[in-house]
Amino acid sequence: MFKIVRREEMAEGTVILNEIEAPLIAKKAKPGQFVILKADEDGERIPLTMAETDKDKGTITIIYMVVGKSTALFRDLKVGDSFQDVIGPLGKATHLEKRGKVICVGGGTGVAVLHPITRAMKEVGNEVVCIIGARTKDLLILEEQMKNASHDLRVCTDDGSYGHHGFVTDVMKEVLEEGDVKEVVAIGPVPMMKAVTNITKEYNVPTLVSLNPIMVDGTGMCGGCRVSVGGETKFACVDGPEFDGHKVDFDELMLRLNAYLEDEKKCHEEYCTIRDAQ
Amino acid sequence: MAEKSAKPVKNPRIAMPEQDPQVRARNFLEVPTGYTNKMAQEEAARCLQCKKPACVNGCPVGVDIPGFIDLISKGDITAAIRNLWSKNALPAVCGRVCPQEIQCEGLCILGKKGEPVAIGNLERYCADWERENGTGELPPKAASTGKKVAVVGSGPSGLTVAGDLIVKGHDVTIFEAFHKAGGVLVYGIPEFRLPKAIVAQEINFLERLGCKLECNAVVGRTVSVDELFEQGFDAVYIGVGAGLPRFMNIPGENLVGILSANEYLTRANLMKAYKFPDVDTPIPIGKNVVVLGAGNVAMDAARTAMRLGAESVKIVYRRSREEMPARAAEIHHAEEEGIDMFLLTNPTKYLGNEKGRLTGMVCLQMELGEPDDSGRRRPVPIEGSEFEMDCDLCIVAVGSGANPLLTSETPDMKLNKWGYVHTDEKTGKTTKKAVWAGGDIVTGAATVILAMGAGREAANSMHDYLNLGW
Ligand SMILES: Cc1cc2nc3c(=O)[nH]c(=O)nc-3n(C[C@H](O)[C@H](O)[C@H](O)COP(=O)(O)OP(=O)(O)OC[C@H]3O[C@@H](n4cnc5c(N)ncnc54)[C@H](O)[C@@H]3O)c2cc1C
Ligand code: SF4
Ligand code: FES
User: Are residue A116 and residue A223 in the same domain, yes or no?
Assistant: First the structure.
């Protein structure tokens, strides 16, 4: 059992933070790696990239958006409750290197995943420009943390309620125009990562993305997480989750992410009906 | 192992009662329902008690077959099961899943003229009897040696090592990557063939003996083999199976609706997705299902798809019936349940729609040519024989390879060119100090009984090492 020691709601309660006791994982985890969580006996195995780890306290932190029944179950866990299973750390860690000027772009809950990577990029000596965005001001997460993790934070909202009015890609273009950018790290919804990589391709700037396909085991034994990268099939859970964004087939990823959409909707609606009735 | 034979034979074997094919093809309950005491007596009476029993040579672990059958005849099932246990830690499992027709029963003298003794059925009978009527008494344990053993992987191989070493007085901890123990017995082989309650009871038995079980422990990630030694373990057994799915590598394989058998069966069995939406893990329900391959894994996937409500399920296999690697009983059961066999057929590409979903596949007809490396006649395509097949769910069950997750993090352990662990054939000892390995991660995908046999040999060698410290 993996006890929740801290719980926060963000972005008007649509995004949840859980800090969980998992000393073995905390000891080993590196930026970019993920865990698989399962709430209870009949729960689904859900992969989430760690937003924070604390070796001394023996805890890991995950931040997720409530999108279906499984994340709704996670949301209903209170401080002191436990996840039945947490497995990790899984996947390859981010390759960190001093390159010079680096842009870290995050959208939605991708910002949570981007946070430890941004901090590590700065720690190894890069000059980090960070760009984060959300649909509207109230949905923005981790602004303060991202400011500390980078040298220069730029914020965008789609509706102009805060920061730059527009998409993260607009701001990224401006920074790319200033020149000298050695690498871009983009983490967020698939359409955002696709848009980012389309632009960085034009500027010939290497771009790292972190993918979140459907997974079961997270250890390379099922192949459910396969993604096409440069025309080759890769298992995101062991070969990734980070890949060269210029080679990823985002359209295929999008289609594969929707494989169980209908089932999930049914399951979630049923859960909400039961829950509301109680 | 034809349960029903066309010609009436003299002295026929006692068929085990089964659920009706029409009914069972839509439920997940076990297919054969077990012998009654009377049936077991009658079947045991067929054994000739040969002086030089050939069947024993056919059993990879050398079960004393005439011996345990004689004890059944005498009505002493308690003694019969103890006799079985002395060679085989998991008779309830082996009685159900061993390919008896090429092992013990294949060499039974009665099979020369008629039907062999139903050794597997009798083995199952004893184990089931013990589970229902036995005292649950634990075997005696040797005094503690103070030595600590880590068993990585909780499949039949790892479970055997754990059981053998705990009774020899060592302190055993099993590390399992999944959230539940049992390996293929829980994630691969379906409930209708091997009820999960049986596996759970075997694991409970080991826990009662004092084995510690650490689930959610991915060795190579959560902890490395070297760290296990740092934590004070004196010896390590690696029984991580052959968990790397093979795909066909033909165009369109990433369409939605194409799953490896590992994924499909893990969803169905381990995650119990056949109960969706009562459980949270979904599984694709196919209307026209194609399963590629013809081993036990393929049969299990096909029969699961049928039970989940498919209209048609086809096995597509590039060789002929003779080469189908599945147990005879599984092929027989699958056909009874209405699964069609498309033999000498090989897919060349998958077809999909604009939503990226599978809609069909293009196949080629094959014929058998010259024998290949495996000694089996090589299937060669017949020119111009292409045809299209509708299908909205395809399960790929064409074999598995060595998963590099643990081995790539254990650099001083020698692997062979396919990535399997290199071991001493007799003892299972690897090239890394104090590390043994066995089961599918050494042999490639094989059988439960071979994985257990390897476990027993390794356990003996590990015991010597721990006692003598060579
Ligand atoms: C669907 C299916 C049907 C089958 N049917 C039959 C049959 O009818 N008869 C028969 O004899 N054989 C059958 N087999 C084959 C048989 O199940 C295997 O040969 C046998 O289970 C191998 O045992 P094992 O202990 O080596 O490995 P496995 O049973 O594969 O167990 C390995 C365990 O190790 C765990 N593991 C893997 N990596 C790690 C890691 N890094 N750290 C910790 N744990 C790890 C896995 O999660 C798994 O639980 C079937 C196989 C399948 C897949
Ligand atoms: S363990 Fe398998 S091969 Fe050996 S006697 Fe039993 S069924 Fe036959
Ligand atoms: S999640 Fe199963 S192989 Fe990646």
Answer: yes
